[in-house]
Structures
1.
Amino acid sequence: MANMGYMKLIFLGPPGSGKGTLAARVVDILKVPHISTGAIFRAAIATKSFLGLRVKAIIDAGHLVSDRITIEMVKERLAQADARQGYILDGFPRTIPQAEALDGFSTVDKAVDLDLSDALVLERLSGRRICRKCGFTYHATFNPPKKADICDTCGGEIYTRDDDREKAIQERLEVYREQTAPLIDYYRKKGLLVEVDARPTVDLVVENFRKALGL
Ligand code: AMP
């Protein structure tokens, strides 16, 4: 296996395309932290911090948190020691201004686009369940936990995200197509884009990802 050194990766792709699942599977290979802006926001909401209280209603409705708040948060996170050499950014950037800001404080090695149709996004998100404690993702039909509502990995409680309800899902898809999908071209023009078909099983997506990155 080629040693790529530490990589700075961005995961693009619609909600439900498997960014978080893929990231969780490859952090050990890449030895870089998995930084999910959505997970940071959810943790802030759970502890009812100032940030959490500010963003809860926006996130539950399926809208994007403002670029200003999000960029500041990511900039601080990337300045921490564990992220200096490499990272997987899952869910950031989500807008062109976020991508431009990122270019100002970090150099991206590759942008991985997990491609999935709207129909499959709907199918996946409407059955998605996540662990409140460790964030591991399940699907009610395709990948249920062994014991109902209990995480196989950490024993935490499994729940449905407020923004995985029908109305918010539609809104998030629209926001994705309008504001985030243009990032595919943004990174293609820079020669950094890697496209991975998000339809197959998790194992196959991991395999294709590794091949595409030469790992
Ligand atoms: P995710 O877990 O990536 O699906 O993110 C959940 C929600 O957090 C999104 O629907 C947004 O409301 C918010 N969020 C996450 N990342 C960003 C971002 N880069 N910019 C703005 N809002 C974000």
2.
Amino acid sequence: MNRIILILFVSIFSFFGCSQAIQEEDNEWAIALHGGAGGDPGNMSQDMKDLYERHLLEALEIGQRMLENGSSAVDVAQSVVVYMEDCPLFNAGKGAVKTIEGNHELDAAIMDGSNLKAGAIAGVKDVKNPIKAARLVMDSTQHVFLIAEGASAFASSMNLDIVNNGYFSTKAREEQLERIVNNAENEDPRGTVGCVVRDRDGKLASATSTGGMSGKKWGRVGDVPVIGAGTYANGLAAVSGTGHGEYWIRRVVAYDICAIMEYRGVPLQQASEEVIFGKIDPMGGSGGGIIAVDKDCNISLVFNTGLMHRAWAKSNGEYGVGVLKGEEKVFNINN
Ligand code: ASP
């Protein structure tokens, strides 16, 4: 009898010891964001790099603060993307690229890895913050994907800000379209934004928003709102991509990374490299990259281009920012 009581005592004790360890581990968080992987690295001035880094760090700080305060992964991913949609430097929201007709058509998606819920919109011309509309599709409808006028009508019925198409225009994007139309130079028209998050509860989320490819035609939709292609999250990892969307769709990039991890049990970094360098690279003309975070707070930033605007942070105080390949500034708030 005494032995049984002892075993019971030891079991209860080790159960509480273990759950405490899990709780401590669960208090950790990790976040990564990108502002696209397009552009000629050789053409980027120091001033331009500094400007991008400043805005990437501002976006990151929003996420860091929210995570410290216990916000959920989806809320954090959405807020970071809203900041980047409002910043004219990036190809999402204000500053989005133009279609060949000279308009803006925006795509966005968000996914909650804790329950596999997702929301996406595509081809909207007047929703100020497409990621907010995608979030509402996820939270307030029975659908996953709304497009064009239907998506706009939904956004306006949910009282989101509706703007004229001209709101999204910037001088830089007009000049970019002109160069493409005149074929004056080899333009690299990318610059999507995205954010992946692992929150204090161990939940994962991914959010991505874009104006698509500059000079795109006839209602073209890229990978960003296609769940599994440019945006995906489950209980293992969250991934957000940027690149030539047609290739990302055909390779189902974001889901493939998560599937490789799940089916083969390989770590996030290895799965990401296998997809970007092993599957996307050989397709040719398919430059881009991904940001990803896994349930253990590992972060991957993998791209096959000369640059990817990126920033990341972890609850242990480490954070980093970078634009060009091989050039990343790493800091620790504890030093
Ligand atoms: N992936 C986006 C698209 O094809 C473009 C980008 O990442 O910049 O629409």
